[in-house]
């Protein structure tokens, strides 16, 4: 039988809020209730946004909540060579292409098109650079800033139909095309979230990915990348997000109170965690309903 392993994988771009604590709690308890392993991975691949002080903050907050992890913390910033190799592999197979478009050019192209397809993150990349012949693209790539995009249609054709299983044993069909040609190698960072997370979940032998329903859409891309790299597919459990009483999602950008603020206010972490385990949240917080596509095919 495969060993159960889950992970909490925060990006150190701010202090954790209670929604992060709720997510870490679910990944932690899922593993520990099954004699599995709960691991911590710091997703610090974004040099513009990741901060060392937030890494220590994450560690401090998890320890305060009593959510301890096993083994060494994995830092994505120390694994860049692995991601670069994976990207290189896709380049050799002709499954990614360099994209030289600026944001403004993409926006103009989309505005000019009568029917730009939309995905969960907005309009699809219009495919402008997909058709540049490989030799010309390679020449331009020497001098011009570019990112690397997945040729999603081609990758899907190579991978064939794909699905994953959720915690209830339900099969979900993967539709990576809903995202269009996603970026796998960024202009401003060596690699994208999608590529790094897929490789790391496999390398850390994560059997069950327990994470918020806001990442459900990303699973479609991760499933495709697993197929392209011949990696195992974990079971995915997408949990309900924590929101304010008025239903607003907790997020760094809407200044949700940080776990550090709760600590400073004298909140008892044991009571807080035990309460959340029993479905009782501090005043002002409540879980949102799960989106329908998280519930089954
Ligand atoms: N690093 C991601 C975030 O903080 C989460 C990654 C994941 O759970 O797949 O949103």
From TrEMBL:
Name of protein: tRNA glutamyl-Q(34) synthetase GluQRS
Signal peptide: none
Ranges where the Glutamyl/glutaminyl-tRNA synthetase class Ib catalytic domain occurs: 4-277
Protein source organism: Sphingomonas cavernae
Highest taxon listed in the record's lineage: Bacteria
Xref: PANTHER family: GLUTAMATE--TRNA LIGASE, GLUTAMYL-Q TRNA(ASP) SYNTHETASE
NCBIfam families the UniProt entry points to: PRK05710.1-4 (NF004315)
Family of the protein in this entry: Belongs to the class-I aminoacyl-tRNA synthetase family.
A GO CC term assigned to this protein in UniProt: cytosol
GO molecular function: ATP binding; glutamate-tRNA ligase activity
SUPFAM superfamilies the record matches: Nucleotidylyl transferase (SSF52374)
Keywords per UniProt: Aminoacyl-tRNA synthetase, ATP-binding, Ligase, Metal-binding, Nucleotide-binding, Protein biosynthesis, Zinc
Biological process according to GO: glutamyl-tRNA aminoacylation
């Amino acid at each position: 039988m495969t060993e159960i392993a889950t992970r909490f994988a925060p990006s150190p771009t701010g202090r954790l809020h209670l929604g992060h604590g709720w997510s870490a709690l679910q990944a932690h308890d899922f593993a520990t209730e099954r004699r599995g392993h709960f691991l911590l991975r710091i997703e610090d691949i974004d040099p513009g946004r990741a901060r060392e002080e937030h890494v220590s903050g994450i560690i401090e907050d998890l320890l305060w909540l009593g959510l301890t992890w096993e083994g060494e913390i994995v830092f994505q910033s120390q694994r860049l060579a692995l991601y670069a190799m994976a990207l290189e592999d896709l380049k050799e197979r002709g499954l990614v292409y360099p994209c030289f478009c600026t944001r403004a050019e993409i926006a103009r192209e989309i505005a000019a098109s009568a029917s730009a397809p939309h995905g969960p993150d907005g309009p699809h990349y219009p495919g402008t650079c997909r058709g540049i012949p490989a030799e010309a693209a390679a020449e331009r790539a020497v001098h011009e800033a570019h990112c690397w995009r997945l040729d999603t249609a081609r990758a899907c054709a190579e991978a064939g139909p794909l699905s994953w299983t959720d915690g209830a044993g339900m099969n979900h069909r993967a539709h990576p095309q809903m995202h269009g040609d996603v970026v796998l190698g960024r202009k401003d960072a060596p690699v994208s979230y999608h590529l790094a997370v897929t490789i790391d979940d496999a390398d850390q032998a994560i059997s069950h990915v327990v994470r918020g329903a806001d990442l459900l859409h990303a699973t479609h891309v991760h499933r495709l990348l697993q197929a392209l790299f011949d990696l195992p597919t974990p079971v995915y459990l997408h949990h309900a997000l924590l929101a304010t009483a008025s239903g607003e999602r907790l997020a760094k950008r809407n200044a949700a109170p940080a776990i550090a603020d709760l600590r400073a206010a004298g909140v008892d972490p044991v009571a807080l965690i035990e309460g959340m385990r029993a479905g009782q949240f501090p005043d002002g917080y409540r879980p949102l309903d799960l989106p329908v596509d998280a519930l089954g095919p």
